[in-house]
From TrEMBL, chains A, B:
Keyword Nucleotide-binding: yes
Organism whose genome encodes this protein: Streptomyces polygonati
Domain ACT stretches: 296-372, 378-451
Known pathway: Amino-acid biosynthesis; L-threonine biosynthesis; L-threonine from L-aspartate: step 1/5; Amino-acid biosynthesis; L-lysine biosynthesis via DAP pathway; (S)-tetrahydrodipicolinate from L-aspartate: step 1/4; Amino-acid biosynthesis; L-methionine biosynthesis via de novo pathway; L-homoserine from L-aspartate: step 1/3
Listed Low complexity bias regions: 258-275
One Pfam family this sequence matches: ACT_9
Keyword check for ATP-binding: yes
Protein known as: Aspartokinase
UniProt function note: Catalyzes the phosphorylation of the beta-carboxyl group of aspartic acid with ATP to yield 4-phospho-L-aspartate, which is involved in the branched biosynthetic pathway leading to the biosynthesis of amino acids lysine, threonine, isoleucine and methionine.
EC number(s) recorded for this UniProt protein: 2.7.2.4
Keywords: Amino-acid biosynthesis, ATP-binding, Diaminopimelate biosynthesis, Kinase, Lysine biosynthesis, Nucleotide-binding, Transferase
Family assignment from sequence similarity: Belongs to the aspartokinase family.
Enzymatic reactions: L-aspartate + ATP = 4-phospho-L-aspartate + ADP
Region Disordered: start-end pairs: 242-276
Length: 451, 451
């Protein structure tokens, strides 16, 4: 009987009823013979309410105190959850991040986990308790100050504890049924995946999928902790995220137009067992999109060594994370080139300021800021051995009348930037072109026909 | 330049405006050249809201988890207060009870402080910070669990820190102007005391005065920490509670009818400097009342050794604190006696249950429960050398037509139990009889005429 780490998000414990429902689910797991460690987020809007309060007393809330404030949220939910479990006749103890041994660096508001020393959790489990742990928080190694882990922190807490406790699985309970081939709000025919590989999930997470954050998946992959993303409302099996598909896994049935003309399927049927590894691994996991970014173009940069470096050093010094970077071949006549990059809209103002300051040194012509953009990404580990994928992707966009502004690729991902209004039709077109739609007539995989 | 500990209650930090007002007051103290440690309670109704939530998920909230839950309240207020201070351009750091070194026993919901090791507070002060500490909470010595100190816990935290840090004064900021000679809601002519001795304050606190709790005063007396109780709203000087009156202290002007007939004052005027110690110390500090208790009478107890002990063992085993105990002389004919005692109404049901169970062993006749009672107490260290006080007290009650049901005395206090409806006229009569009314024509103290 193994150890299970379960994580419940704020929407699952939004009120007393939610907490009681979650308590019953936890007790069911315990009754199933498992040791259970539960990581819980703050209730519903608690964190937002605390942020509001902070802004009322101080326009620029300070790091250390802001963390102290925010961690009150999980303290409330974890204590209530422990009480609700005890009320069902089972023993439970709650632990703050610090008590659970979540040791971090000292970067307030976005600390990183350095070590996990869950001695108290282990003791509590050995004594027959269900352990409830505050997500999103830890204690700094040097100063012993309370820290928070930033966005997606609770998921990361759960995976980190699962790794430190050598758990069988880390179950992430959320308000959706799992990971889908595209955002179901955009693509009605999007399908829930039964399984997705870590590396595909990493690409989806970094290109707009909100279900799991990159950081949490990265941690899970490093320590090889299978994640099971599932709904705390429906109780249905969700999506497994791991290195290898679970036993008995059958890849999604899909239709795949392998040629330029759409509609004509080719290849073998899914679920056949030809012993071909590429048959087991879906070529395309899904289509993600992201409309939270803006694009900055630095116009007329002298095309000589070091200029790009100076630009991105200015951005880095302002502590801004950028995403895609594209530089075109310079025009021979002028010796000038344009450099474009994307970044979160929320950082746009800061970046423009930093670049304007740097203009004296870099001597570019001008800056252009554009926040009416969207990014569409196609992700799948299978694509690295399937050159047809790129062609099909661009054809689908072209057929949908979508103009492409920037392109960036990794081994298992293609991303394009378009006008923001084109995002929805683009995602739908690509999802359909790769046979991911759920009511497809043909059940065909691309795998057998690749290369 | 000394160290000042300030404590702000929940009503002082009920909202963002309150927090900002308190922050300005703290900064003013700091600017005055003091090192400042601030103990803060949870905002306004936060604690009650958390208790509500707990009751929604579990009818009997568990000790350890309940403490974990409640301590979230101070975590919020202390972090916000630190932010507000930083926003005024001063450095501040907040500390949980655990971080501040408040070490307690393991009795959840009403832990007692065992030790205070404020190393981190000292460091923060030495680095120029204002230290903000969560009131009401600590960490248990053996299990390292979060504990709460129960009622009045924040005041006790403040005094304990003041003692551990060797502070000049512990300022308790509240929503009243200080300690009054009686509850101003009952006695319009009640006066604010400039100073009151620890021992008188202890008696007032244990007999119904709500301004300071017994426990906090006891702690302050043991470590000889002067307390200054004052309003966080008015900023006026409040009441000093200490061993000796502050330099320049003038006792309250008061009229004191020394004889049975009321109205005729006798004795010397207040403020005269005859070098008589009893002149400096007011005979009567004030009149307190308490309507939160009930009375239980055990009727027909066999008057033989050990019966009373058995009764109070049964009560003690149920962890019920009792207040007054009265046993009458037994009737010679029956050899039976009645034992009455008072206790908090909230414990009444539990006590009746415990006694009913004990009836088989103790063989009393019956139990009577009465919650329509009130207690009036007259407190003053001077009374132990002034035998006329008791007589004047009972005459005042008699003149007001108040019937007395129980009497209990200490060296510096007389308490009586009456019908609850008699409490208000009784307090007014006694307050007036001892010349405590503020607009008295005569300025006379009893001190010079005693014995």
């Amino acid at each position: 009987m193994g150890l299970v780490v379960q994580k419940y998000g704020g929407s699952s414990v939004a009120d007393a009823e939610g907490i009681k429902r979650v308590a019953r689910r936890i007790v069911d797991t315990k009754k199933g013979g498992h040791q259970v460690v539960v990581v819980v987020s703050a209730m519903g809007d608690t964190t937002d309410e605390l942020i509001d309060l902070a802004e009322q007393v101080s326009p620029i809330p300070a790091g250390r105190e802001f963390d102290m404030l925010l961690t009150a949220g999980e303290r409330i939910s974890m204590a209530l959850l422990a009480m609700a479990i005890k009320n069902l006749g089972h023993e439970a103890q709650s632990f703050t991040g610090s008590q659970a041994g979540v040791i971090t660096d000292s970067v307030h508001n976005k600390a990183r986990i350095i070590d996990v020393t869950p001695g108290r959790i282990r003791t509590a489990l050995d004594e027959g308790n269900i352990a409830i742990v505050a997500g999103f928080q830890g204690v700094s190694q040097d100063k012993k100050d309370i820290t928070t882990l930033g966005r997606g922190g609770s998921d990361t807490t759960a995976v980190a504890l699962a790794a430190a406790l050598d758990a069988e699985v880390c179950e992430i309970y959320t308000d959706v049924d799992g990971v889908f081939t595209a955002d179901p709000r955009v693509v009605k025919k999007a399908r829930k995946m039964e399984w997705i590989a870590f590396e595909d999930m990493l690409e989806l997470a970094s290109s707009g999928s909100k279900v799991l954050l990159h950081r949490c998946v990265e941690y899970a992959r490093r320590y090889n902790i299978p994640i099971h993303v599932r709904s705390s409302f429906s109780g249905l099996p969700g999506t497994w995220v791991s290195n290898e598909p679970p036993a008995g896994h059958r890849p999604l049935q899909r239709s795949m137009p392998g040629s330029r003309s759409s509609g004509s399927g080719s290849g073998s049927t899914a679920g056949s067992t030809q012993g071909d590894k590429s048959m087991e691994q879906a070529i395309i996991s899904g289509v993600s999109h992201d409309t939270s970014e803006a694009k900055i173009t630095v116009v007329g940069v002298p095309d000589k060594p070091g200029e790009a470096a100076t630009i991105f050093r200015a951005i880095a010094d302002a502590e801004i994370n950028i995403d895609m970077v594209v530089q075109n071949v310079s025009a021979a006549a002028t010796g000038l080139t344009d450099i474009s990059f994307t970044l979160p809209k929320s950082e746009g103002h800061k970046a423009m300021e930093a670049l304007t300051k740097a203009q004296a040194v870099i001597a570019f012509d001008s800056l252009r800021y554009d926040d009416q953009i969207g990014k569409i990404s196609l992700v799948g580990a299978g694509m690295k051995t399937n050159p047809g994928v790129t062609a099909t992707f661009f054809e689908a966009l072209s057929n949908a009348g979508v103009n492409i502004e920037l392109i960036s690729t990794s081994e298992i991902r293609i991303s394009v930037v378009t006008r923001v209004d084109d995002v929805k039709p683009a995602v739908q077109a690509v999802h359909s072109a790769f046979g991911l739609d759920s009511d497809s007539d043909e059940a065909v995989v691309y795998g057998g026909t690749g290369r």
